[in-house]
Structure formats: C-alpha cells, structure tokens
Amino acid sequence: MIKLDISVVLFFYLFFTVIVVFGIWIWLERGSSFNTFKVDRKDMWQCAVCNYVYIDPKSGDFSRCPRCRSINKKGVHKA
Predict the structure, then answer these.
(1) In the chain, where are the structural domains located?
(2) Would you say the pTM of this structure is higher than 0.90?
C-alpha cells in the first residue's frame, strides 16, 4: 500500500479537476463558432430629425424612427 499525505491527495484531486475543466472549456470554445451579426447596407437608416442610426429590413422607401417616431425617406440624411 502506498502511503500518501492528505495534502498530496488534495493537490492531485484539485490539479486533475482543474485540468479537466480547462480541457472541457477549450473543447467547447473551439467547437463554438458564433455567427457574426451581418447588416446589409440597404437596411441601415439614419433619422433626419434626431440623427439616430437604426436597422429596419422590413421597410420599403419609408421607415419610422424607433426613437422619435418620425418618418424617414430612404437616402435622405441630415447634413
């Protein structure tokens, strides 16, 4: 029988636990590929009243600003 001190056993237990957690973390990070948020330039709007930039992919030529509720026309920006 091998005689071990309690501090040595505790060290090996904590060491291998940290190694396993670190290995799982690396494995999950490597496997996860976050999709980046891609915005089409035609869906970006800038309000002519409050100068707020927002995304509205559902609108056609006109869009309502979510901040000040004014109606904006595509291609018209405040100078």
Answers:
(1) 1-34, 41-73
(2) no
